[in-house]
Amino acid sequence: MKVLFLAHSCPYPPNKGDRIRNFHILKHLSSRYAVTLIYPSYSKQDAKNIELLQPYCWAVKTVQLSPLLAKLRCCLSVFGKRPITNSYYYSGRLKRLIADEEFDLVMVDCSSMAPYVLDVKKPKIIDFVDVDSDKWRLYAKMAPCPKSLVYNLEFRKLQVFEAELVRRFDASLVVSEKEKTLLPDSDRLVVVPNGVDLEFFTPRQNKAKDTLIFTGAMNYFPNIDGVSYFHREILPVIKREVPSVKFIIGGMDPHPSIKRLEGDGTVVTGYVPDMRDYLGRASVCVVPLRIGKGIQNKILEAMAMEIPVVATSAANNGIDATDGREILIADNPQTFARSVMELLSDAQLRESLAANARSFVEKHYSWNRNLQKVDEAVTLAAGQWNMVCAGAALAK
Fold it and tell me: What is the mean pLDDT of residues 38-56?
């Protein structure tokens, strides 16, 4: 079977949330079908990554797009009926490239890519991952006016569009049971949790003393907000009790506001080839997200490396680790600081929490186990399409 996989961004290198999920799903599909990957490139490096993706696909194609023009399209579409993000990812050249493809089934990785194949008469699967409308709802609550008005408008547009996609696609994937409740009820919704590469992320020895770490793309608003909140309201409380504490902010493309945090025990790494070199040194992983959607890969990776995690309820929302056994949950600055300090001072607690966390991800977050649900979605989509075709034939 020929499968067309449409990604909204280059799925390589697999070093951030959407890339990690897309890369592993792509590898899984390619082990079973002839997969053609198509994605828009917004940088020269994205275009060059075709060579690195070819071992995992039957064919890889991309179209170079201008980020500036994409943002301009967004501005012009603010008062249109369709979501603003659809305009960002739309390209006539990409549409023509997709139209020239021959395939038996198509999978798109988010609602923004769905318009390209909405009217295609073939089995269709959409991977909502984190339900984007709810993300914009949360953004609207956190952002000042007038941004909050624009974000709320996007939330409402996306909510309507996502409901339409659930009706029109033959199968829809989400990352957790909680994300599933954000969409209209349907027997074609399939939960495909994220996973973690348990052979790649393994425990290391010789951890540094009193070292905290946060990892993630540092140009992403929830990460910027979470790290800023931690540095402003939580870290000073910890420093009063543990003056030697160090804080590593690990991740690509740090926002200027994040870069300004460097100094006085805080390290901003920017892009690094292998984040395990920093993760492996950490005493505690902190995930103080106030906006948390889906499954946080940063938590799974730390758990797999047996690094104890302190996180907010929002960050743990899709993972459902048990507070006090596999993770420590803290939702206000005082509780968060106290939990971190407790771990820094209690080696036995650190070791117990870390060992339980590794066992937890081994049991629940293996890619091999979770990606079997993708096979179910392919079977479901093909079956739905056959039923539609049979019904059309009977109608004649």
Answer: 92
